[in-house]
Amino acid sequence: MSEAAHVTNETAGRVLTIKRLFNAPPAFVFDAFTDPKRMLQWLGPRDYPASYVEADLRVGGKWRACLDSAATGEKLWHGGVYQKIVPGRHLAFTFAWDQENGTAGLETLVDITFERQHDKTLMTFRQSIFDTSENCRCHGQGWNSAFDRLEELLAQD
């Protein structure tokens, strides 16, 4: 995890908050979260990169993605619904993993703010409320791995 990363757990370890400072303006970072072509380049941990992303970017619109394990071939489908969209500043959406029977699992809310700090962006990512602190911890590891990939992608721009 980079020095710019900070992770805290609240509510008995069931709320995940991650703060990252990205070396790019807020509009670029926001675009990386909302453009499916850009999301394919960073979404998912290093060992489970995204192979599919679709997004209907409007309040009430749905998003869907699949993470693929290169090692095992396992596919992890997940998706949700956009709740709030303020270009370059704020994004909120629901998040749920697909269960084996095709139904959605536990739904959490992801709320992300993008704050300009000179020519950089302070991203505050919050996902809540998880069913267990272990599930929260695992998501923190996965998201931080993905955000490391995002940081590398933004450095190329």
Could you characterize the architecture of this molecule?
The protein is of the alpha+beta class. The chain has a single domain (about 5-155), classed as START domain (Alpha-D-Glucose-1,6-Bisphosphate, Chain A, domain 4), CATH 3.30.530.20. It contains three helices and eight strands. It has helices spanning about 25-35, 35-40, 135-155; strands at about 5-10, 15-20, 50-55, 60-70, 75-85, 90-95, 110-115, 120-130. The longest helix has 24 residues, at about 135-155. The mean pLDDT is about 95. It holds the Pfam family AHSA1. This is Polyketide cyclase. It comes from Phyllobacterium brassicacearum.
Q: Main traits of this protein?
A:
alpha+beta; 24% helix; 8 strands; Alpha-D-Glucose-1,6-Bisphosphate, Chain A, domain 4; Polyketide cyclase; ASHA1/2-like_C; 157 residues; 3 helices; START-like_dom_sf
